[in-house]
Amino acid sequence: MGSDLARSVEIVITLAQREFLGRYRGSLMGPATAALVPLLFLATYTFVFSTLIPIHIRPEAGRTEYAFFLFAGLLGWNLFSETTARAPKLYSHSAHFVRRALFPTLALPLAGSLSALYQALIWWAAFLLARLVSGSGLETSVLLAPLVLVAIAVLAAGFSTLIAGIGVFVGDLSELIGPLLALGFFLSPVLYAADRIAEISPWLIRLNPIASHLELLRATLLEPASISLAALVAAVAWSGAAALLGYVSHRRLRPLIADRV
User: Fold this and answer.
1) How buried is residue 54: exposed, middle or buried, by Cβ count under 10 Å (0-12/13-18/19+)?
2) At what angle do helices 211-221 and 229-257 cross, to 10 degrees?
3) pLDDT at residue 255 in the model
4) How far is CA 223 from each of CA 12, 53, 65, 135, 230, rounded to the nearest angstrom?
5) Which of 30, 33, 49, 99 has the fewest C-beta atoms under 10 angstroms from its C-beta?
6) Range of the domain at 180
């Protein structure tokens, strides 16, 4: 049992590293691109939302605050959406692995989530660097942000496992996942704070599995005083429920998947 678990963990880490490094194979700067891209995004957001379309999240906020506000939301959302967007075709695109009787199929969605987590941690580091360079300063709570990102990765792994299993039997799911994620993006506190959505309907926040994670992540990065125990409990509950749902669905569908890919 222990040796099987160790082997499965090794496979997940190996696949995640291969996927992460594979993104930058053939690029001019190699893996260094992973650090440059978020900095370029943040520079773009800062220019657009401080000069072209000035947006202030509150009257006394500085010109660059909304750029950091938006970047903090995208940091968590991209981790979640990147993992789940590829899930419907995950098993069919890796059929050579899935058809091997001894291969732990669950390693595929877990590796995808871990690879996305690597990327998110680089974006987090870029966020810290940009805050320091801009003179905005950092709170010690930023050190808690990686824990929130891990919780989002667990949430994404659970949902992507479920979606990957269903995607083997429902081919249309790969076409539907894009619009569904687009809807989720606008119903999540990415562009605006969670209380703006709650003003319309509190249930849009309570029933959104990633809303509490994004609220908590943004608080650790920008406003530690707004860290909410309710958001923390909700984030842990959603991540745990998603992980359990993904595991149970995988146990049920695993014997059928190899014959369908």
Assistant:
1) exposed
2) 130
3) 85
4) 34, 23, 12, 16, 16
5) 30
6) 2-257
Give the C-alpha separation, 190 to 98, whole Å.
35
Separation between Cα atoms, residue 106 and residue 260, nearest integer Å: 16
Annotate 238-249 with b (16+ C-beta within 10 A) or e (fewer).
bbeebbeebeeb
Rounded Cα distance between 241 and 220, Å, is 23
Q: What is the pTM of this model?
A: 0.91
Report the candidate in 54, 49, 57, 55 with the shortest Cα–Cα distance to residue 195.
57
Of 151, 161, 157, nearest to 236 (Cα)? 151
d(CA 136, CA 42): 14
Spell out, as residue ranges, where the chain has pLDDT lower than 50.
none
Whole-angstrom distance, CA of residue 55 vs CA of residue 204: 24
- Alpha-carbon gap, residue 146 to 174, rounded angstroms: 30
**252, 168 in Cβ contact below 8 A?**
no
Which tokens sit at 154? Answer: 């667990």
The pLDDT value recorded for residue 58 is: 63
User: Per the structure, how many domains does the chain have?
Assistant: 1
CA-CA distances (angstroms) from residue 90 to 98, 137, 183? 10, 41, 22
